[in-house]
Write a structure and sequence with these properties.
Blueprint: H1 4-25, E1 29-33, H2 36-45, E2 52-55, H3 59-64, H4 66-72, E3 76-77, H5 87-97, E4 102-105, E5 109-111, E6 116-120, H6 124-130, E7 135-141, E8 145-146, H7 149-167, H8 173-177, E9 192-196, E10 205-210
Parallel strand pairs: 1-10, 2-3, 2-4, 4-7, 5-8, 7-10
Antiparallel strand pairs: 5-6, 6-9
Length: about 220
């Protein structure tokens, strides 16, 4: 039993490197780090001082603490979580983030063949992933790895979305049933489905896979 932890670490790293090989074949740069702290340092190493930085909503980014470092450092963080912002001001900041030098986000799922699968409500996160910022950095916990795109969609709709809805206290059917009912609620956040199968501009997207569970 003494070597179980060591074997688990070997397995996570081996799994991550299989995905990294696939991401690189799809014209994305990818790295593996063991911890959230290492992920934070790797993210910061990829952002030049003075950069304008936008971000998509992400528990993973909150967990590794990278936004706090950017707020305190010599960066221009397009921060829609400042207190007392109006909905209109937050929306303006979402639009400004599409013109950022660097955009930070997580991903709802990453497949074994190197595809990023995301479902978005407003669409600002997937919009920046597709086009706009010249550099996109994606932080993904090892728990985000799935076999294929169908497994990704199932994971998002029947695990991520219900938990997210319940966490936010939203009166959505999935928050009660624990599964997607393809609702038509005005509060629905499963609106835009985007799969990045290949990146047109080489190395525009960098994916950092972390050997810990992060986010949902």
């Amino acid at each position: 039993m003494d070597n179980v932890i060591e074997i688990k670490e070997w397995y996570k790293e081996t799994l991550a490197h299989r995905v990294i090989d696939s991401l690189e074949k799809n014209n994305m740069t990818a790295f593996y780090v063991k911890t959230g702290e290492e992920a934070r340092e790797r993210v910061l190493s990829l952002i030049p001082v003075g950069s304008k930085v936008g971000y998509g909503g992400s528990l993973s980014l909150d967990q590794i603490g990278v936004k706090d470092v950017l707020r305190a450092g010599n960066y221009h963080l397009i921060d829609r979580h400042k207190p007392q912002l109006t909905p209109e001001q937050k929306d303006d900041l979402r639009k400004e983030s599409l013109l950022a030098d660097v955009f930070l986000m997580s991903t709802n799922a990453v497949t074994m063949d190197g595809k990023l699968v995301n479902i978005d409500g407003i669409g600002n996160r997937v919009a920046a992933l597709i086009f706009g910022p010249p550099k996109v950095i994606v932080v993904a916990g090892i728990n985000k790895i799935v076999p294929d795109t169908e497994a990704a969609r199932q994971r998002i709709k029947n695990y991520v979305a219900p938990i997210h809805a319940r966490r936010l206290g939203l009166p959505l059917p999935c928050a009660e049933t624990g599964k997607c009912l393809d609702c038509r609620s005005p509060l629905r956040f499963c609106n835009a489905v985007v799969t990045i199968e290949h990146q047109y501009q080489k190395d525009r997207i960098t994916v950092i896979i972390v050997g810990e569970d992060l986010g949902l």
